[in-house]
């Protein structure tokens, strides 16, 4: 079957299998930021936006994307780079595998919530699992990203 959709504001016409999931379709077409982990909606690593809202691409059928607007990390590169720098400044990234999904979620949160509290952040981001680095440094990095402040230098 054929779907027409917009990916990062570019119109695409793709042939897909009826049972294909969005993560697979995006990976096949070169969107290298889209990772998969559990493949079952439980880890958040595959998060992209569909019509501006976060969605787990491992669990979204590509057949349902006809006419929709999909955004991957490649489509928000400047913001992603700025947030990634804050994460680096806090020294929280280890393997980095969770980062694309995490960044997509944080950038969605920054559009939805004004000045979120720590509890609101935790609630918004609780679908994204990080197996190596823990979360405290990540929350500090997000706070600095949202407030535009720098990490203290040693
Ligand atoms: S790969 Fe999609 S939620 Fe884990
Ligand atoms: S930094 Fe390795 S899973 Fe998060």
Class by alpha and beta content: alpha+beta
Specify the helix fraction band: 25-40%
How many separate structural domains? 2
- What would the CATH topology of the largest domain be? Ubiquitin-like (UB roll)
Strand content: 5-15%
Radius of gyration: 16 Å
Give the name of the CATH architecture of the largest domain.
Answer: Roll
Could you explain how this protein is built, in words?
By secondary structure, this protein is α+β, with helices and mostly antiparallel strands. The chain folds into two domains: about 1-75, Beta-grasp domain (Ubiquitin-like (UB roll), Roll), CATH 3.10.20; about 75-145, [2Fe-2S]-binding domain (DNA polymerase, domain 1, Orthogonal Bundle). Helices cover about 35% and strands about 15% of the residues. It is built from five helices and five strands. It has helices at about 20-30, 75-90, 100-110, 120-125, 135-145, and strands at about 1-5, 10-15, 45-50, 55, 70. It has a five-stranded mixed β-sheet, covered by helices on one side. A hairpin with a 2-residue loop joins strand 3 and strand 4. Helix 2 packs across helix 3 (about 100-110) and helix 2 crosses helix 5 (about 135-145). The mean pLDDT is about 95. Bound molecules: FE2/S2 (inorganic) cluster (2 copies).
